[in-house]
């Protein structure tokens, strides 16, 4: 699992962790979750992905900042150069990287 850490590397209770329903190759890339559970994220939040099938370029890489599109979808960076999403995967809200 991805560690959810604060800037001072302490674990936090405030985070979102959900299964991905879909990911779309687009500019920007769009991530959707099941309509029975809102993602609860806000524009500017950071997420990290794991166990994504197909679009494996997202797995266990640096966190990405998101833009909320709907309560069930959000945008990430351009994913047109990534492999097509084929199923499964998870994302977790994380604190932004410490610079």
What does this structure look like?
The strands form 2 sheets. A 4-stranded antiparallel β-sheet has the order 1-8-4-5, with no helix packed on it. The chain has a 4-stranded antiparallel β-sheet with strand order 2-3-7-6, with no helix packed on it. The protein has a single domain (17-94), classed as Elongation Factor Tu (Ef-tu), domain 3. A hairpin with a 2-residue loop joins β6 (67-70) and β7 (73-75). The protein has 99 residues and is mostly beta strands. It has strands spanning 17-19, 22-24, 30-32, 46-50, 64-65, 67-70, 73-75, 90-94.
Present the secondary structure layout.
Elements: E1 17-19, E2 22-24, E3 30-32, E4 46-50, E5 64-65, E6 67-70, E7 73-75, E8 90-94
Antiparallel strand pairs: 1-8, 2-3, 3-7, 4-5, 4-8, 6-7
Q: What is the class in the CATH system?
A: Mainly Beta
Number of helices: 0
**Order of strands side by side in the largest beta sheet?**
1-8-4-5
CATH topology call: Elongation Factor Tu (Ef-tu), domain 3
Descriptors:
99 residues; mainly beta; Elongation Factor Tu (Ef-tu), domain 3; four-stranded antiparallel beta sheet; disordered N terminus
